[in-house]
Amino acid sequence: MDHDLAAAEQPLKATSPLFDHSSQPTHISPSAVTVIGAGLGGCACALALKAQGFDVTVYERLRHFKRLGDSLGLGENALKLLRRWGGQDLYDRLVKIGNQAPNMQIRRWHDGLILAQQPLMDMAGYIGHRGDYHEVFLQAVRDANVPILMDHEVVAFNEDKPSIVLASGEEIATDIIVGADGIKSRARELVLGFKDHPRSSGYSCFRAYFPGSHLANTPLCAEFVKEDCVNIWIGDDTHVVQNTLRGGEEFNWILTRKISEEKDMGITESWFQEGDLEEVWRCIDGLDERIGAAIRRTPGCLDWKICYREPLPTWVSRSHRIVLLGDSCHPHLPTSAQGASQATESAAVLAICLKLAGKDDIPLAVSLPSTTRFSLSGRLTL
Questions:
Q1: Please, what is the Cα angle at 369 between 192 and 10, to 5 degrees?
Q2: Which among 156, 196, 263, 278 is least surrounded, fewest beta carbons within 10 Å?
Q3: CATH topology for 199-308?
Q4: Contact yes or no for 36/179 (Cβ under 8 A)
Q5: How far is CA 246 from CA 114, 134, 210, in A?
Q6: How many helices and strands, by DSSP H and E, does the chain display?
Q7: End-to-end alpha-carbon separation of the chain, Å?
Q8: Listed residue (206, 333, 293) closest to 258, CA to CA
Q9: What residue ranges do the domains of the chain occupy?
Q10: What are the contacts of 141-144 at 24+ separation with CB within 8 A?
Q11: CATH fold group of domain 2-98+124-196+310-377
Q12: Burial degree of 138 (CB within 10 A; 0-12, 13-18, 19+)
């Protein structure tokens, strides 16, 4: 990524007018950027834009954040950028959150025999709790003197001014709006002109996260709670990922399984749907008893249907003043462990394009990130 960004040091120039700049308000600084959403992608975007000298404000509809979710992988591709924007201290705080095991083990389903070993950074980077990463991201944005306005829900956009309208009725003018408002993005609907719907992958995950002390009296799984480790058991259309954090203080497992068409119809896309532990036990029939014992000791779990969205035809609104970022435009399957990292990369590309293009070529600048990112991923041939 460093090489790609260094290569962007050549000036950009629009070859044709893409937008009538005369219709824009003149009382707003051309460097004013409004970011919608203070999740991981929104925070990364704020840091990237601030590092390039933009005047950034982040709006978040929630009053406060909770420590939601469980394991999240943050790769070196994102960490290098975050170190550039927030310094070595930010990098060190993020690395400290993640799993400190050097390798992960891929194991046979029925007896846990190690089939392969792989450096953990090659698979998912530093695997830590999403809530812990989010807290550090938020603090980094505040340390950069970027305001995060909580309890400010954006209910409408006027892209011809452009401006945002809050639930309070207040309208706020800006130059550029970045919709980093997640998988259920309101900005995406405006950019697309219609509401898209999730598509089932045919798989669902049972997920659990609890204190490692809960397994203290379970000798069978003692090796998995004594220190940080990551293990994957491979079964027939099923696999189990186990993650131990903080030297055994926290324990996480994820069971991904193929679901029947009937079951597929009955599970909705939800982050909070309670899982059926008896069904979990049926799914781990014949599993290595060491991890099986940990799963059977689990007090509760969630059932998370794995959905995806079709690739969007555009990430930019008709006026070229609203651009999507992160899960609002390229949501990854949670099992890919690259969602937060890819949002961070997209933030870097957007910020650099805006900086190099300058105030007269904002339409060009916001159009380039999607073509660049699609090209790099092999989805689009330029």
A1: 150
A2: 278
A3: D-Amino Acid Oxidase; Chain A, domain 2 (3.30.9)
A4: yes
A5: 23, 17, 12
A6: 11, 17
A7: 19
A8: 206
A9: 2-98+124-196+310-377, 199-308
A10: 141/38, 141/43, 141/46, 141/47, 141/50, 141/58, 143/86, 144/46, 144/47, 144/50, 144/51, 144/85, 144/86
A11: FAD/NAD(P)-binding domain (3.50.50)
A12: buried
Strands (E), the chain: 32-36, 55-59, 71-74, 103-108, 114-119, 126-129, 148-149, 154-158, 163-166, 171-173, 176-179, 199-211, 229-234, 238-245, 250-258, 302-308, 322-324
Place of tokens 């009296």: 217
Residue at token pair 């007090």: 299
Question: Encoding tokens for residue 155?
Answer: 């209910």
In this prediction the pTM is 0.85
Q: Can you tell me the distance from the alpha carbon of 174 to that of 44, in angstroms, rounded to the nearest whole number?
A: 19
Over its length of 382 residues, how does the chain's per-residue pLDDT go in tens digits?
Answer: 343 333 333 333 333 232 233 334 333 444 799 999 999 999 999 999 999 999 999 999 999 998 877 888 999 999 999 999 999 999 999 999 999 999 999 999 999 999 999 998 887 789 999 999 999 999 999 999 999 999 999 999 988 889 999 999 999 999 999 999 988 888 888 888 888 888 888 889 999 999 999 998 899 999 999 999 999 999 999 999 999 999 999 999 999 999 876 666 656 666 678 999 999 999 999 999 999 999 999 999 999 888 878 888 889 888 889 999 988 888 877 777 788 999 999 999 999 999 988 877 888 888 888 777 766 554 433 2
Q: What does DSSP say about strands 55-59 and 32-36: parallel, antiparallel, or unpaired?
A: parallel
- Chain-centroid distance, C-alpha 253: 19
